[in-house]
Amino acid sequence: MLRINRLLLFRFSCALVSFVLATVVFAQSKQPEPTPEEKAAREAMSANVGFRAYVFEGSDVPKPVTSPDNSFAGSVTIYDHNGAKLGSTFEVGPYFAEIKTKPEKQAPATRYVTLFRMLRKPAADWKFDPAKPLDLAELIGVDRKVIETESKLIAEVCKDRPFKQLESDPKFARLLAGLALTPKDTTRVSRLNDAFAYERQAWVTLRRKITGLDKEFPKPFDGPDLIKGIPATEVREGTEAEAKVKPGTAAKIDAALTEWAKDDDQAFAVCIVRNGVIVLHKAYGIRDGKPMTVDTPSWMASITKPMSASLVLMLADRGLLTLDDPVGKFSPALRDIKVTKPLQIRHLHTHTNGLDKFPSGDDTQNDLEYRIADCYPVLKVGSAWAYNGGGYALGGKIIENVTGESVPLFYKKHLLDPLGCTGTEVNGTHADAFSIPLDIAKFGQMLLNRGAYGKYRFFSEETFELMLPRKLTTELGPDATKTFGFGLDGQPRKFGHGAASAATFSVDVDRKLVVIMTRNKIGKNQDKYNGKFWEAINSGLEPLK
Questions:
Q1: What is the tens place of the pLDDT at every residue in 374-430?
Q2: In this structure, which topology does domain 3-25+301-538 adopt according to CATH?
Q3: pLDDT averaged over the chain?
Q4: What pTM value is reported for the model?
Q5: How many Cβ atoms are within 10 Å of 171's Cβ, its own excluded?
Q6: Which of 235, 376, 370, 216 is closest to 294 using CA atoms?
Q7: Spatial CA neighbour of 116 closest among 99, 149, 139
């Protein structure tokens, strides 16, 4: 699927909620109206602080502005791509502005903004032409091969808009910055290593430098660990006897899914694994006019959450943090703020952080921590379970602050590559993964193995226990009845997570069963056939010795 289609789908589907979690989330008592303090915090978090233009030439740096009256009160510090404060000369390339506002009617705020100095500005009506990459390369001083490699992403951002519009779009400046920071030898581009990933990495490095986190956490992260001895179970091809299923089970499941596909308006693919052996790995239906394949990426939606939660547990396993640590220990933006109850790491991934009333976490915001700081004094931490993505996004910033690696890079280096997940793209923490069934099955098998897969151990069995669903008495108090895990829903022996795309992610410990279905949205007859799908699986399982 083309990148643009994925993003359009993501934006459209973000308005949906998981069909699995919808009843849980909205069956709760109606939320009270926000207090005046909460409304003010929301406005502060969403305040637009930026520049009249984000790209420039020469030494004519754009002036900062604050909405809604285009005035500005505060200070601006500009850094180059090496983290040095701006001097009197400008080289072509990216620049990074730390803006500190001092508005009359709101609390001071800090924002991070990317700028870009072009070699020369084009005419106001200039438009990016993918067939002429050299035009943009010459404007921004970037190698032509980089432009050619990223042409689809550039076209998606530019959207046939003239330069007069592009120069006032902060995303365009971020794109140009990322292009300038992309290694010339980059050949295969995904969201794990595209221009925005490199721009984000630059901010991670700079953020750690200007806050002193590079001194507090100087050591690079080195996981996962190599297993000494017998490797952990890996997902593999095999016979039905090896999978411990009855003869003909794959055919029965296939028949149920074939019937489903004929009466559905959505394509899907599955990977069913028992005892480490693939029982069925097949795709069904038509998507975008083409037959669905097992290598066609689909939107995993909130199944992203347990993936990012596992990254945080890697840090915990190596003693870099504990779930009881205050978030401010790893986020200078949240230090020295008077609060009723401080956020702990455990609150971020259990939906007990109080962020549900505020703009959901945007992983792409380099200043997300400062935006959350705007609402921190009024957060009702640990008062109720309320589903949200903001906690996970803040958890992603913790990963970056501690390791010095941006979330996309950390995913790739420490989870996806070691698992052999070649069909997964993800740069966020709670809703944006696109993947294929075999990749998610490998992740599920790693959890079934209690933190190990093949020759790698991602975290210890003791650390894995922290991830399992349980009553949230630690987070919500002794009378808590809600059960949830650190990024996982369900029960300790049968867990997974729902998805707004209606994707399935289920791990059954006692039956050594991993069931994955990938799709982009709920189909018209989901309820009619989902039960038949599971019945075909359950009826074919042989007892395990």
A1: 999 999 999 999 999 999 999 999 999 999 999 999 999 999 999 999 999 999 999
A2: Beta-lactamase (3.40.710)
A3: 91
A4: 0.93
A5: 14
A6: 235
A7: 139
